[in-house]
Design goal:
This protein is an alpha+beta fold. The chain has a domain of about 80 residues. The strands form six sheets. Strands 2-3-1-8 form a four-stranded antiparallel β-sheet. Strands 4-5 form a two-stranded antiparallel ribbon. Strand 11 and strand 12 form a beta hairpin. The chain starts with about 45 loop residues before the first strand and ends with a helix. The relative contact order is 0.11.
Length: about 850
Amino acid sequence: MYKIMEEEEFEFQPTELSDDLCFCPQAEFNNKPDSLFFNDGVRRIDFILVYEDEDKKERREYFEASLMKMGMELEATQSVVDDKLMFIKVHMPWDVLCTYAEVLHIKVPIQPNDLASSSSPWRFFSCITKHFYPNEELISKETEYFTAPFEKDRLDYFYIKEKDIFFTPAMRSRMAYYILSRAPYEIRGNIKKFGITKLLDGGVYKAAYPLHDCRFNVKSTEQGCPNERYLLYEEWAHPKSFYKMQPLDLIRKYYGEKIGIYFAWLGFYTIMLTLAAVVGLGCFIYGYKTQETSTWSKEVCDPQIGGNIVMCPQCDKFCKYWRLNTTCEASKKLCIFDNFGTLVFAVFMSIWVTLFLEFWKRYQAELEYEWDTVEFLEQEEPPRPEYEAKCSYERKNPVTGVNHTQRLFLILICLYSFLSIGIGTVLFWILLILASIVAITVYRLAVFFTFSHRLRNQDLKQLEPLKEYVTPQMATSVTASLISFVVIMILNILYERVAIWITDFELPRTKTDYENSLTLKMFLFQFVNYYSSCFYIAFAKGKAVSYPGRLTLSDDSALGSEKVIPRWEQDYQLQPVSKLGLFYEYLEMVIQFGFVTLFVASFPLAPVLALVNNLFEIRVDAWKITTQFRRVMPEKAQDIGAWQPILQGVAILAVATNAMIIAFTSDMIPRLVYYWSFSVYPYVDHYNNTMAGYINSSLSIFDTRDFTNSSRPFADTGITTCRYRDFRYPPGHPRQYEHNVYYWHVVAAKMAFIIVVEHIVYLTKFILSYMIPDVPYAVKEQIKREKYLTQVILHETNLKLVTKRLKPIAKDCLKETEVKLAMEEMDLDL
């Protein structure tokens, strides 16, 4: 077991500041725009604080004094652009770095990896594949090391070449932010207020951020600058590199594991989309080639069949009779997406999503090992400052044996508050979305009939010029879409604030817990918000119709300036990072993942469009984070967090959704029932187990004399019967206009299809999940090797410590023995 250090050992005692306040020294800018150091050129800048000279001077000075008492070194420099702005440069000396590296369990190298890596199956094509990877001359492959959590007492056992570069800038910034988040700025009695977050919210500081190492488009000439931002822009974010694989190790090194795992997931998802896009494109081409030869489209377009079928009006009073062959082109286009290839593709996508999730787990396990996050457990992640500030009760951690503070009343009412406030509020907002959808649907119906009435009223002369161009459907769709857009945007803004408030009230212990809780709440709302319309169109729209008569800024812009602007001020002019971090980036991709999987049976080209979008998305996100935003605070992350179970839930739901779309929305099942009908139904014209005659069999007959006065069409052309799409008994039958036997056979076939497909796909998913291990065998071996080396090092260290302690005791025992022997010799002589 590693030595677990309690944070209280290093916690700053604020009472020391009461008599002796120390102030941050000031220095003039040395006219080196790309310098990453204090004016002495020796001490590296680990963090930047920005403030304006305002009335909140006391808190700021107390806070800065606290930082210096905790061992950090500060240097203030006035802005060269705005005289009101001051920049505080923060540096962490070696001793402070060692102390907090141990507190944060930061893993550092102990020995180069001596296990032979498995050769890539693509090595024979290296002459071709090398062009699709970043330039190795610019971005060399990182050396692999076995690592262990840092400990000050065992410095000799860590792989330290140079102290200045032993802790990477990302590690240093992470440790600096840990101290900034816990340094006090005010004490009133027993109440201690601390943390840079509260000071930023209160306007004491205008910004706090780590530095970029150089300009993104100009290579720095300063000594000790790795120019990693420049390399990322050239080989990753630049549009010319769109075809190259991502330099994930460099992304992780520069931005931290949380950013790295996002781009790793996005890249892996895009690669997997390639296979789905190829199959989806093949399905689309098949449908496009067979649209002219499809039996049902030919019957619709045939003047002798579709041209002789008179269809009933599609609305009461105002709509007219129409011929079936007028939908010829629409029927052909429908056959492109509604064919037997769609069924195969839907089943394929259900298998694809399982393979995607299982292979991602394996790839994620490799990244966890390579990026030292395998043991990034709850006891290793420090608690949030907001949690520490409100803790009043200590509980012993059963794993580490260390006492952790927590809220006493939270233990008693946590479950009650979560059920009554958390879930209740989320359900309320979800129901609010559903209510808005119902309201918009009612609005569409009301507006449709209003526009229909006005456009057909011959007395309204002012609308005559619009009759030819404005239809009731167009007017209804446009206005309803605008209202829906406004409602969605308003609910998004309000719900985000509500979700953050609920999560703050829950007071999760770690930042990972906080983000997972917030992500789940936000996604449940966004899921309903984004997909409700799709579910409505797929399963509700047009399904409740009865028979007729009963119708229901860039980085170098400042350097165009005459003044020389330092590195920290260039970064200040960039965009600040959102408080929600990567949430909306993940949300955008997971929503897309839902469209690709949930409704792919309706649109096989969805994976193709998603693939094209993601190829741009990766580079656009890379360009934004590299050129337009301040450097992201590096954070550890083991995986993609709450998005993993969300993806699994979407994948499970996708099987049922696609099966029901094929069953209830497409004509697939009625066609199959018609094709495999061996006995001729009394109300179905069947031609020897072929598709001939299907169109006629799928249309029921309606007697126009059965129209009510409120539904009879104005344009009465003497037509006695018309057809409509359904399976009902004809007029004159004792059960006229009721569903016939064939209808119930189709319903039974649809239910059977859903059950069979779901069971087959779920069984296949289970078998694949069982056969594909989550962690590759090579990674397991490397983890075992690393643990063995760590134990050997610990054993040797403990043995030396024991030996060192026993040496004085052994010397004393030897002296006592010598004295006894001398006395015995004296006795013998006497």
